Amino acid sequence: MYLNQFLLLAAILFCLGVYGVLARKNAVLVLMSIELMLNAVNINLIAFGAFRDNVIGQVFSLFVIAIAAAEVGVGLAIVLLIFRNRADIDLDELAQMKG
Amino acid sequence: MVAQNIVFGILAVVMVAAAFRLVTTQNVVRAALFLAVVLAGAAGLYILLAAEFVAWVQVLVYIGAVVVLLLFGVMLTRAPIGREGDLDNDQRLLGALVALFLLGALGAVLLDAFGDQKVGTINIRRTAEVSDSLFGTYVIPFEVVSILLLAALVGAVALARRD
Q1: What pLDDT is attached to residue B89?
Q2: In a domain, A72, yes or no
Q3: Using CB atoms and an 8 Å cut-off, which of residues 1-20 of chain B contact chain A?
């Protein structure tokens, strides 16, 4: 197996995640796209771990998984707060801080 | 090696198709289910790369917890369930351009840097080795992540609490 097949797959998933973050206006869908990007990074870490024949890639991917869990928890709490205040989670409408 | 490449090909096609549908579907619940498919495919890739422990952590934490949490988010924010459009903003073309440019740049760099290097035979790493590294060399980052999770927990409760 080539190393590049994993890295290119991860790059495709990451770019799809970037597109999702940019083109979605539902906040929950943006969070899902961010999960997609974090997952692509994890694939890279594991692939490099296997390539370099050590466990550090696995250890760091566990860190990424833990931080992604924390991120989605806080992110959803913020989304719920926005929904409670505005009855809407359309990200395009959130422009109160615009000067 | 051939069998591994076939498995990789199937997983890659399924993951890319599911990820594409995830960012284009007009149905929020389906998007969450497509995310579960992508995450399961990633767990399959981890097993292919002999990282069993991470694969099962992926299944437990991502598919078990994060997807369910996102579905709760869909439910609590009363997102349009069922087929309903209007989930994209008007930057779709620009977003696609940025993503394609990024893919081109990343692809060029990766092909240039790792051209035809092979992963080779993968030595199976036992979970004991992972935990030795995690609780030995990386014990301080591990404790920092514990504090981060606690802070995230308290922060999420403080944010979402109804006063």
Answers
A1: 81
A2: yes
A3: 1, 4-5, 8, 12, 15-16, 19-20
Correct CATH for B2-125 of 3.40.50.720, 1.10.10.10, 1.20.1250.20, 1.20.120.1200: 1.20.120.1200
| Gap between the Cα atoms of A15 and B149, Å rounded | 28
B59 CB within 8 Å of a chain A CB: no
Do A38 and B38 form a contact (C-beta atoms < 8 A)?
Answer: no
State pLDDT tens for residues B46-95: 999 989 999 999 999 999 999 999 998 888 887 665 556 677 888 889 99
In a domain, A17, yes or no: yes
> What's the rounded Cα separation, in Å, for the pair B159 and B62?
23
Q: Inter-chain contact B73–A28, Cβ cutoff 8 Å?
A: yes
What's B90's DSSP letter? Answer: T
> B40 touching A, CB under 8 A?
no
Phi, psi (5° rounding) for residue A26?
-80, 125
Q: What pLDDT does A84 receive?
A: 86
Which pLDDT score, from 0 to 100, does residue B42 have?
A: 95
- Please name the residue that has the structure tokens 């209007």: B86
Kindly list the distances between the CA atom of residue B161 and the CA atoms of A48, A77, B88, B156, B157, in Å, as whole numbers in the listed order.
42, 9, 30, 8, 6
Residue B15, C-beta contacts closer than 8 angstroms, at least 6 positions apart:
A9, A13, B37, B38, B41, B42, B45
- What is the model's pTM? 0.92
Size of interface A-B (CB pairs under 8 A): 238
Tokens encoding B155? 């922060």
